[in-house]
Amino acid sequence: LVCGCCGKLIRGKYxxxxxxxxxxxxxxxxxxxKCSVCSRPISGEPTxxxxxRPLCKICMKTVLLxxxxxxxxxxxxxxxxxxxxxxxxxxxxxxxxxxDISKVREKAGFESDGKELGLFKRxxxxxxxxxxxxxxxxxxYETIPHEWAHAWFAENGHQLHxxxxxxxFCQWVASKILAEKKYxxxxxxxxxxxxxxxxxxxxxSMIERQGGGIDAVLDFVKSEPPADLRREKx
Length: 234
Description:
The chain has 234 residues and is α+β, with helices and mostly antiparallel strands. The chain is built from 9 helices and 7 strands; from the N terminus they run ββαββααβαββααααα. Helix 3 packs across helix 5 (137-156) and helix 6 (163-180) runs antiparallel to helix 7 (184-191). The protein is globular. The termini are far apart.
């Protein structure tokens, strides 16, 4: 085996990453900076996006540097999502491309771990989506549909659903776009997440499989949830 990072013959232990072709030697896997998008070890000095996000050469080729490209991804996503869900969002939803999502989140009163790529923000009738500048095209096609789904949920979803259910619905919506665009790696990562997003996604996907497809999912999120899945009224 040849290391996909340093190009040297691998002698001894080797590593692989889910949904990424190739193998990596122990030295590169343990000592090299990892790509913030695909997690592969980076050979040499990494390209830093936004001063804090290392990207490998492969992912760097797909980074959106023109902010107009985000609008194209948004328009394309909304067209597909409106057809998928059978309904558009009647509020006007602004799209802002920002250098630091964490600052936007903190200003809006949300916690941040510094790793977020997007945010849906609502203030009364003002709906807005924020996405991190210099995201890869694949991440843009995951993040924008996810955040747009929050806007859809704000208008159509039952407000007593637990947060992980809403996040799961938004991940499920994003998965439909990733599948449509044939982004298998992003779809695979989404399906295997172990956090509340993954938990919610698998729950919504189960409703789709067992309940009769997309209509079953939409009926579920629009309806009052069962007692064990209901958030407390404020």
